[in-house]
Structure formats: structure tokens, C-alpha cells
């Protein structure tokens, strides 16, 4: 979903990325990726709604200008990392300052990359996801921390700059598959089969 208006993006098994407007059922634009049939994609707008990223086949990121996407990506990053087994990307998220992109996966790995050159800055692995769940992860509004749900129901936090694990919050008995911050304030909600609201200063001491 665009942070600025009613536009949103979708990816499909037909290897297309489509641009939509919530005010109409008609597709507003289409990108034909021309990838192999089983290549999976994930998409995300940047913090300003001017640029969007497309993650392709769990190793490439294409950056598009919203006003000029018909002419193809203006930047392509290949994310080359060593893993012990296959890792599938499940989502992309930009930080609020537009400097970083977070890549969630179907295992206990989160990547933080530089949004300008594609360099892998952090690889986060200190959480549980043995069942290959689609767990929510992202940046706090001030971009100082990375957060993620976990298969054991905990909510984990790491320093974005160092990757150091700084907090593990407990409230869920089932996997915490949904975690979402208020975009402006340090308060967030998480869910398994129950919805929980958090005020971080009470738990993190800030």
C-alpha cells in the first residue's frame, strides 16, 4: 500500500506486478517480469510512495520509479549470501528514512540491505522459525531497531546498526505471525490468535 495515496501493488504467479487504486476495480498499470514460471515475487513501496521495490526469485531486487516504471527498473541489486539451505523471501519493507530495505524469509533469517547500493548490512538469525512460517518483521519508526515475530510467540528486537539482540517480549502462546508498529509513535500491535497492544517504554525502559 502506498503511504501517500490509495495506490497499492500486487504480485502474481503469472509473473506480473500490477498497480491498483482502491477507488476502482480496474488495474492502473502492469509490469511483465518475463521470469521463469515458478519465480516468486514480493513488492513494497518506499516511505515516500515515489519508488517501489520488487524482490524476484529470492535473490534480486528491482527498484522502479512510480512515474516511469514502464521503462523498467532504474536499479537492480543481486543479493548474494551464503546459506545452509534454500531460503525464500516472503516480504520487503523500506525503513521510514528510505535508507534501508528489510527482507523477511521463510526461515529464521532476516536481511537488512542498503537501499542505495544493495549491500547486505545485517543478517539476523536469533529467533525461531523451524516451521518456515511467514512471520512479520520490520523497522521501528525511528529506524533504530528491527523487530520480528517468532515461532515461539515472542517478539524480538535488534539494534539496526549492530544487529545486537536487545529484547524478547512474551505474550503469545502461538507463533506471533503479525507485528505492526504505529508509523509515527513507539507503540505496536501483535497477534497470533489473540491481539495484543504494546507500549514499548514500559517494556524496554525508554
TrEMBL record:
Q: Does the keyword Nucleus apply?
A: yes
WD repeats by residue range: 1-24, 139-168
State the species of origin: Neocallimastix californiae
**Which Gene3D superfamilies does the record match to this protein?**
YVTN repeat-like/Quinoprotein amine dehydrogenase
Q: Which keywords has UniProt assigned to this entry?
A: Nucleus, Repeat, WD repeat
The residues forming the signal peptide are none
Q: What is this protein called?
A: Uncharacterized protein
Organism ancestry = Eukaryota, Fungi, Fungi incertae sedis, Chytridiomycota, Chytridiomycota incertae sedis
Would you say which domain of life the source belongs to?
Eukaryota
Annotated Gene Ontology cellular components are: Set1C/COMPASS complex
| Family of this protein | Belongs to the WD repeat SWD2 family.
Amino acid at each position: 500500500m502506498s503511504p501517500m495515496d490509495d495506490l497499492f501493488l500486487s504480485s502474481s504467479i503469472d509473473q506480473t506486478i500490477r498497480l491498483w487504486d482502491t477507488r476502482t476495480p480496474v488495474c492502473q498499470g502492469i509490469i511483465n517480469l518475463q521470469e521463469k514460471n515458478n519465480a516468486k515475487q514480493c513488492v513494497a513501496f518506499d516511505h515516500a510512495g515515489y519508488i517501489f521495490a520488487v524482490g524476484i526469485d529470492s535473490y534480486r531486487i528491482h527498484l522502479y520509479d512510480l512515474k516511469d516504471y514502464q521503462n523498467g527498473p532504474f536499479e537492480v541489486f543481486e543479493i548474494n549470501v551464503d546459506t545452509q539451505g534454500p531460503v525464500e523471501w516472503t516480504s520487503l519493507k523500506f525503513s521510514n528514512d528510505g535508507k534501508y530495505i528489510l527482507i523477511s524469509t521463510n526461515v529464521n533469517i532476516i536481511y537488512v540491505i542498503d537501499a542505495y547500493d544493495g549491500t547486505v548490512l545485517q543478517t539476523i538469525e536469533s529467533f525461531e522459525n523451524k516451521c518456515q512460517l511467514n512471520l512479520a518483521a520490520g523497522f521501528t519508526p525511528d529506524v533504530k531497531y528491527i523487530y520480528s515475530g517468532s515461532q515461539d510467540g515472542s517478539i524480538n528486537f535488534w539494534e539496526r546498526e549492530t544487529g545486537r539482540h536487545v529484547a524478547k517480549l512474551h505474550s503469545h502462546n502461538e507463533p506471533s505471525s503479525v507485528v505492526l508498529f504505529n508509523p509515527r509513535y513507539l507503540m505496536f500491535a501483535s497477534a497470533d490468535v489473540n491481539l495484543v497492544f504494546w507500549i514499548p517504554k514500559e517494556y524496554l525502559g525508554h
